[in-house]
Each structure stands twice: as C-alpha cells, then as structure tokens.
Amino acid sequence: MTRFSAWNVLWQGITGQKGWTRQWRDPEPKSHYDVIIVGGGLHGLATAYYLAKNHGLRNVAVLEKGWIGGGNAGRNTTIVRSNYARPGNRQFYAHSLKLWEELSHELNYNVMFSQRSHIALLHSPGAIDAAARNYNTLRRTGTPDAEIWGLEQLKQAVPHLNYAEGARFPVMGAAVQKRAGTARHDAVVWGYARAADQLGVDILQNCAVTGVERDGGRITALETTRGRITAGKVGFAVAGNTSRLWNMAGLGRLPIESHKLQAFVSEPLKPLLDQVVVFGMGGAHFYISQSDKGGMVFGGDLDWYKSYAQRGNLPIVQDVAEAAMSVMPCLGRVKLLRHWAGVVDMSMDGSHFICPTPLDNLYLNTGWNYGGFKATPAAGWWFADLIANERPAPMIADFDLKRFERGLQLDERGAGPDPKLHG
Amino acid sequence: MIRISCPFCGPRDHAEFSYGGDGSIEYPALDAPVQDWHDAVFLRDNICGLQLETWQHVHGCRMWLKVERDTMTHEIRSVTPAHPGLASVLESQA
Q: Could you give the ipTM of this predicted complex?
C-alpha cells in the first residue's frame, strides 16, 4: 500500500500513475479471529482501526454483507457537529469532533473535513432563549465555538436565506457552532478501511452473517455466507439491522426501532452555500449544505412509519422540497439529481448505545438515530476500548441498555419514548 | 406511497394516516411491577417482516386502526378497527 505524501503524488505524476497499489486487501476469511466486528460501515471500520491502533489487537476481522460503506455510511448528509446539551452526549461528541479535526492526518487520507459552521435558524424569542441556554452550557464545558447570532450577523454570513418578514416562520437569529461542518463520507470509509487493513485487519466483503452459534452465555462462532468463523469476541455495529442480528443471537427485544431516513442531492451548482444550515420549526425539519462537487445535499424527517426498506416515500420528498423553498427560495429551479433512504436504528430516547450485552463476549453499538456519521471517530474509539478492556469506560457509562431501568433518558428533544420522534 | 384500506372510508393514501407504532404491545396493569412497565414502554421486537401496528386515519374518520404490514415490502395484509366494538355501535346508531 503506497503512502500518500507530496513526494509520492509528484513522483507518480511524473511516472504515469503506474505505481499506486490497491488500498486494502481482499483476503479469504480465516477460520478464527480474536475479534470479529459485524458491519463494515463507518463505526465497524473505525472500531477495527482503533482496536489495532490503540489496543494492539491484530487478529481482527470486519464482516460486511455487501460492500463497505454501502449502507448508512454512504446514505447520510455528512454533517459533523457537537452541539449536544445533555451530560454524557456533550463530552462524547466533543471528543468526536476533536478526533475529526485530526482525522486526515491520523489516517493519511484526506477525508475533506471542512469546518464551515453549523447554523441552526431560530424563529421565536423562546427558541432563542432555549438555544442560548444550551449554547452557554456548551461554551462553559469545552465548546467555545458555540455562538448565538442576531439577524444582522446572520444576514452578512448567509445573505440568500428567506428573510421575509411575512414568512410563516420569520428568521430571528441563529445558533451557530463554528467548528462544525461536513466531511466526505466515502473518504472516511476508505480512510478507515485502508488504515485498518494496513494494521492487519481483514476486511471481508460480501460476507453476511446468517447465524450465531452460542455456548450458553458466550458466542462461539458466526455462520456466514463465506463459511463458519470462530470468534474470541464479537461486536455488532450494523445500525438499522441490529434487531435482526440480536434475534439470531437469541437475545429478545431492544429499545430501538428501524426507520428509514431519506437524503437528497441536487445537480451541481457554482458555490452557493458555505455553511450547514438547519431549519426546524413546527412540523418542518430541513438541513442543507453544499458538497465540494457542487451538489446541494439535504434532508428532512423520517418517513414516519417503521421500515427496513432502503427506499423512500414520495410525501417526504414533497415535505422536504417545501421546506427547501421556505428556507432558500433561490433553489426553486434547481433540479433534484437523486434521493435515497437509509435504515436507521431509532432509539427510545434519541441517544445511542455502546455497551456490554447479556452475552459475555458480545458487545453492542447501536441506536444512532440521525447522528451516526458525526459520531464515527468517537464511536469507534470507545467501542474498541470497551471490547479490548471488557468494561465500559466512564465516557460511555450511560450508553448502556439498562439506562431506562435506572430512569435515565438522554433525550435531547424531550420527545419521550417514541423512536420516530427523535429527529 | 402505501394505500391503506380504511374499514370506514375505503382505500386512501397513507399520507392521510398517522403511524402509531407497534400494535402488539400489551400494557400491564397499573399496579404491575416496574420491570413490566419498562419492558412495555421501552422494548420492541422491531420485526423485519409482517408486524401488527397501529395507524390513525387523522385526515379522514380519525379512527385508530390495526394494520398487518410487512416492514420490508410494505405490503398490507389486513386492516381492522383498533376497537372492534366501535363499527357495530356506529352502525346501530346510523
């Protein structure tokens, strides 16, 4: 595997680009691995990387039923932020953002992390007060880049939003996190895969888990479409399909539901929007940014009913288009290029789980709702820490399956135990 | 778009309806142990395949319905009133 450097880029340019080697191997499965991570998405690959990098584990495999990054890793709107208010979430996402800031260097792969600001529009004095409370908390707890902007400052930064006073929800200001932004989702997948592979991790694609073999309270082996593989420890990181694997392991019910979330991209435009802009008011929910290729990347709410189908319905397309027009009327003649859906694991409080399970050597990463992309580096970091050390670190102590029994809900929206409401 | 055949109004687009949730949950008695309530409120089978669920025809007759639907194909197997006695009561008063 050729390392990327200015010298190598120059040398390959001079010598006809003939010297680049493949970025990761395509190995045959071994009969045994010390750790098997099920799910070759961002969280699974990041976990495998940190298992090898931070904990020195080398006999590690990542099992992916399709191709790596073909699930939610390739279906999200690539937003990275850490403006979470609840204790636990706040520290976790702050750590994640710090890892993002060094990620391209860490992986020797340009993940195109662009800290372009995340601007959440505010439409009422009450919303400004609530945002000010949250963002003041952030400023005092290690996120100094959280700011509340007045209308004039916002107009200077993003002049072409709908500022009409007669709008149904006139814009009154914004809550802004300046270190937030976007990254190139595929590059993050490929960067983690390449870096993990270099440390000896086997990435096994087209390798679906079809059965889980148990010996009492332990998993002994996984049946896969590429044969039976025995495992020392197993980690599940499969987002929307967690309940299916959980059933294969004979473990009953989970505090999650699988829902589908759509995302959209327009035809490429000249540079139009330098920030991530978020609109959430009444029944509307909309977030938009512009990719480096020029496409407007945006999304809205869930499709509202539980589903495992990776295809979106049309009423949400209309909803999102209406929200787009109310926030940025200049998009009216822009053509939609594609829209797609991913199956997300919506949890009962809108927060995630990185935790031990009822089985001794099985560990679980699930419940990421809308937010799995931004969590990638920290989720991998702490899931690896949990698997390697066989105990939850204080950072993830409240991300366990038992928190509801303790009366704890990490419910950022205050929406209550209904998965579809945690958007 | 899913088409749901409301037993009161006939076939309508799903946009007229609001999804309730898992219709197989049976809530325990008010004085049941806390663990039973925890399980009913927080835990889900999250079936991939045919599941029983509740929908409300909010932009129609506003009735709550029980729907058997496949969560992978979205095919609907059956639609019945959530409160079975209601249909006959309505008919008797008509």
A: 0.93
